[in-house]
Amino acid sequence: MKKEEKNVIIDRLAEQLKGTPNFYLTDISTLNAKKTTALRRKCFEKQIRLVVVKNTLLQKALEKIGFSETDIFGVLKGSTSIMFAEVANVPAKLIKEFRATGDKPVLKAAYVQESLYVGDQMLDELVNIKSREELIADIAALLQSPAKNVISALQSGKHTLAGLVETLESRAA
Fold it and tell me: Class of the 3-129 domain?
């Protein structure tokens, strides 16, 4: 591969890294063609872009966008695939789901919500990260809860309230 071609790949990769807030570095090297196709299909269904890259090109792309985390450079050995995702925990859930039938893909590192997670042991923690939409739904549920309690208390006690009002009116008369 010529130097110009490598520079084009590095530039494209740097744009993708900069344009996507979350990416996972994985090892899918020992998957056979059938399992690789199944993984790519699941990635497509969940709106994850799966790209196989050379480690040196990936490191240069990361350096180009100002990434100076030496921990992530340490995992760039062997076969590396990148999963680009808009939602933080979707690739982690996909990896966990896919590993129910085998030992790959292996999580090397993940850059999620401006935090670096290194090592396969971080997979469970990444699965539990809530997406923006999930956090908004949780906040909305918390805000609705007190109002629902007041309304249900008023509705359950409306017969009692009506009796109380009648008693007060009869005493006043």
Answer: alpha beta
User: How many residues would you count in the chain?
Assistant: 173
User: How far does CA 86 lie from the centroid of its chain?
Assistant: 7
Number of DSSP helices (H) and strands (E) in the chain, helices first: 8, 5
Tokens for 118? 């290194």
Identify the CA nearest to 122 among candidates 96, 98, 142.
96
Range of lowest pLDDT (68-72, 78-82, 90-94): 68-72
φ, ψ at 52 (rounded to 5°): -95, 130
DSSP-derived letter for residue 53 is E
pLDDT reported for residue 154? 60
Does residue 105 have a cis peptide bond before it, meaning omega lies within 30 degrees of 0? yes
